[in-house]
């Protein structure tokens, strides 16, 4: 079994990866599974892919392990692609300090305010995710995923987080926050990126 560090402390992401990669000879651990804490990585890239690589390289060098990292967020066309890589801190709040619910509420409020005068047909947007697997400073695998939708004027649904209650998917007839977790995993940007990773990781491992 090869140990790979998943650069997150989120148990949900760990379960998602373990479920998708369960047939591969890999032991997945998160940042919480390390013997010593590592300071949080900075995210200075101007694209999701750049940030994913930056985080993966940082934690791989610090832990001495192959590391998989992701970066994801929302791009709204009418806002020139914003919030983009600043999605999690669009309103200037850090969820690690104020809590996820408060940060999400502030981000959604800012987004709605900026889109107040944008007509429905021009509220197109997408969730995008980038994954990067590195060994030290060497990038081994990169994948990505995207799901298209549009932004509503009021939240709908309680199953999601972040911008999920505002992100309407026409093909599903509902917001991301109205999907079950299983449905969300099947169509989400992160789910797509994870599924694309499987054959590439299998080839890398010779599985």
Walk me through the topology:
Blueprint: E1 2-6, H1 11-21, E2 26-30, H2 48-63, E3 66-76, H3 95-98, H4 100-114, E4 124-135, E5 138-151, E6 167-169, E7 174-175, H5 181-187, H6 189-205
Parallel strand pairs: 1-2, 1-3
Antiparallel strand pairs: 3-4, 4-5, 5-6, 6-7
What does this structure look like?
The structure is a single chain. This protein is α/β, with parallel strands linked by helices and 207 residues long. It has a single domain (2-205), classed as Alpha-Beta Complex (Maf protein). It has six helices and seven strands, in the order βαβαβααββββαα. It has a seven-stranded mixed sheet. β6 and β7 form a beta hairpin. α1 (11-21) packs across α6 and α5 (181-187) crosses α6 (189-205). The mean pLDDT is 93.
Describe the structure concisely:
The protein is an alpha/beta fold and 207 residues long. The chain has helices spanning 11-21, 48-63, 95-98, 100-114, 181-187, 189-205; strands at 2-6, 26-30, 66-76, 124-135, 138-151, 167-169, 174-175.
Jot down its keywords.
207 residues; Maf protein; 6 helices; 7 strands; seven-stranded mixed beta sheet
Average pLDDT taken over every residue: 93
Largest beta sheet: strand ordering: 2-1-3-4-5-6-7
Order of helices and strands: EHEHEHHEEEEHH
Number of helices: 6
Cα(first) to Cα(last) distance is 11 Å
The CATH architecture term is Alpha-Beta Complex
CATH topology: Maf protein
